[in-house]
Amino acid sequence: MAPRFTPKVVTANALLEGDVVYLTADDRWSRHHAEAELIEDEAHAQLRLLHAASQKLIVVGAYLADAKAGPNGPEPTHFREVFRTRGPSNYAHGKQVETGHV
């Protein structure tokens, strides 16, 4: 018996800036995890990943990341993804300044 599918979001890195981005339900790339489309169907997740991977002039390294529903939108469930929501850790700028994680 196959394991039960866990909800996912599609994430990648913006090609020009390198920022972590998330695919939204209306096909935008957002820098905010809470705006990502929470995908609860495995077939739909694969289709969304293919869609993301086809946008080679916008993003690189698209993949599915585990997530869960939260009060303000999807929330990451793995420490790696939590870390990615905070932005680069080598200096304070961008997301770290915006969210107070400096």
Automatic annotation (TrEMBL):
Superkingdom: Bacteria
Identification of the protein by name: DUF2849 domain-containing protein
Species for this entry: Neogemmobacter tilapiae
